[in-house]
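Thread: T9SS type B sorting domain-containing protein, structure

OP (GT): Posting the sequence first so everyone is looking at the same thing. Length is 688 residues per the record. Can we get the structure tokens written out before standup tomorrow? I want them in the notebook alongside the other entries.
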Amino acid sequence: MLRILRSYRFLVAAVCFSWGLVFNAQSQFAFEIPQRENARILSYDGIQVSVSGKLALCSHSEKGSIILDVTGGTPPYTFLWNTHETTQNRTNLYAGSYTVEITDSKGLKHIESIVVQPPYPLILNPVEKTDASCGSSADGSAKISVKVGRGEPYRVTWSNGLKDVWEATNLKPGTYTVIVADKYNCDVSVSFQIASKEAGIEVAETISNASCAGKSDGNISLNVNGGVAPYIYKWSNGAQTKDLINVPAGIYEVLIQDQGGCTLQASYRIEEPQSMQVNVQSENPTCSGDNNGWIDLIINGGTAPYTIEWNNGANGKKLENLAAGTYLATITDASGCFVEKQITIAAESALKLDLVETTPQSCGGEPDGSITLKLTGSKGNTSVVWSDGQKDVLQRSNLLAGTYEVTITDESGCEVQGSYTVTQAEAVNARIESALDVNCDQGSVTGHAWVSITGGKEPYTIQWSTGATNIREINYFNAGTVEVIVTDANGCMSKTSTVLDFPSEVNRSGRLDFQYRKLQITSESEVFTDESILFESEIAPEIIAWEWNFGDGKTSSEKDPVHVYENPGIYEVKLTGYDIFGCSAFEVNQVQVTSADAQVVIPNAFTPNGDGLNDFFFPKAKNIESITLEIFNTWGEKLFFTNSQESKGWDGTYRGQLLPPGNYLYKITYIDRDSQLTEKTGGVTLIR
């Protein structure tokens, strides 16, 4: 800190005081006055001095300076320095103490003592730095500090723009300089290098610009080195590949990251040629149907020369002798780029005749048909001439059925023609249809009758014989004849009638019953598994469809079906019948089925002579799960084997050869439904 000591002596209330003045760089003064009881302070407008300049030296080669700003007292002032100088301000001063006596024009004196501080070194500690992790990563840091100096405040300026901070972060690899200045503007600088801990990512690009304006065929191909491969790519358009293929013109940014986490961001531009601009000059044809219009194209941009092809097969930039319509030009420049231009020309007088309405001649034969036309696009006054001599009207009335032609011409000479037919009114036809809506649960019936109308002209007027009007459907609750009269908008009429059926009642009870019995007559009344059961129905005549449910997951639509139960149990059999109205009735009975014991009957002889009788040897088995048949000769040689219940059995042959008559041995093994295994052996006689 720069200290300037000043001594003052004032007379205050007849008491003398003296004090020291401490001056700092901001020219602030602090006075300390001892307190005394009953003291009075008299004010006096004395000389005031503000001192500035270079009051501290940064090096031995520098010289100081003192600048005095004097106020108060009575100007002008005189100055006398202890070095005998008489100027107000001093320059080229060495370090040391300087005293100046200032006298105003009334003789008031003021003495100021000023010290020019000698050089004091400003020395920085070595830079504490951390290198960047990657070649271009901004994660390096540096920290500086003052080793020797006059004290704060210090001003710190970094070459990357930072100010008044002792530590810089987020530094990329490179050379940096820091300048530190003290409060006397003495400064010192230091330079240092931020290196990279890891080799940076390097990239070289090859760019192919878009061939035409708006075309997506630009490419950016990258050659990436450095860092730690493989690399991850993130493009601004969302792509994650190394190269961009077939993209439109524009700016594309890419972030490349290696396996060590180092990144490189780059930006590339794909250019495109200047787009072609097509302006049009044209003239419309005079009338609809005329061929005296033309189109001329004015082309800028792209790369000349241009090739122009039209959708009508013509070439060149100008088309002549054109009718009204839309024309499409394809313009291709020397680079192969093309644009399409669509031009529409319309006739100056585009006469257009539209039919608004024709009314047919009514059914009565009176001349009451009409034609109403609408004309648009005419230029000036028009002439209207009809084929029957009528003129200058677009609406005709009181017409008979027939064809009427009209010719209309405007003042440009453009013409339009039309031909219109007034028809005879079409006959109207009505037909009555009916249906019954049956509520089976309540036993109620509602009849519905409706009229179907064809021909004629809407709207229709409808009159039913029941009194209903202008409705197409009525309800009825009795059998009988109903009549309807339909009249169309032309006054044509159709009258029709029909006879409606209606049932006397809907009855669901007492219409179904059934019994069941064994199909094979036996002395046993029980129903066994695998026996055929005949179900006999008693169905009322009005029942037209039926369905059986035997309770074991099987059904039948036969009237008197035969069913076989495979497993024992009590089954609920349900017979459901349906009448012509879709109403149903049903009858339910229970059938108890008992499991039959296994039965195996083994013949003792067979005659395999091909007469269809007793030609095979096979046991007759019942109520078994599986069976095996083996045949042996008397020496124990096996001649035949089967384990299929569907097998016909042994036919008296061995390896295709007929065996001689005689006795043969059999072995039969079967498993019943209780999983019991039974084996039977014996003899059988082959008779030829």
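GT: Both are above now. Quick notes for whoever picks this up: The CA atoms of residues 303 and 334 lie 5 Å apart. The chain is about 0% helix and 55% strand.
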